[in-house]
Amino acid sequence: MDAIKHIQPLMGEGDPMLLDVTDGQITVRAGTDDKGRSRDQVHADLEGDPLTPAFNPGLLLRTLQQIDAPFTQFGFTTATKPVVLHAPEQADIFRGLVMPIRVTQPSN
Questions:
Q1: Which of 2, 12, 83, 105 has its CA 20 to 30 A from that of 90?
Q2: Planar angle of CA 89, 91, 96, nearest 5 degrees
Q3: What is the pTM of this model?
Q4: Is there a contact between 37 and 12 (Cβ–Cβ < 8 Å)?
């Protein structure tokens, strides 16, 4: 949540936020040449192949705020399919579903 809050000031209303998901970390990045670019990193354990989905940052943040736990599990299948979010020990209490945004060219 902190990483999303950190980059939001550089984003426009409809700008996507990209998550570079690799083993060991998720790099949260967003921005444009005219507004500036930002990136932040958080620790993550990955089971599967690396991927780079794009999200509406406000929607992802609101979903994460519903999870009352120190860790959140993201259930990805591909970068363009819906993602299930939940706390590993609370999957029977709350599961959030977030749809990634399709982007034609990821921003660097």
A1: 2
A2: 130
A3: 0.83
A4: no
Q: Is 7 strand, coil or helix?
A: helix
**Distance separating alpha carbons of residues 31 and 27, to the nearest angstrom:** 13
Residue keyed to tokens 């209303």: 13
pLDDT of residue 97: 96
Name the nearest CA neighbour of 42 among 11, 63, 68, 20. 20
Task: Tell whether the model's pLDDT for residue 51 goes beyond 90.
Answer: yes
d(CA 59, CA 48): 25
What is the torsional sign of CA 98, 19, 59, 95?
positive
- Neighbour order of strands in the sheet with 24-32: 36-44, 24-32, 17-22, 54-55
3-class SS at 26? strand
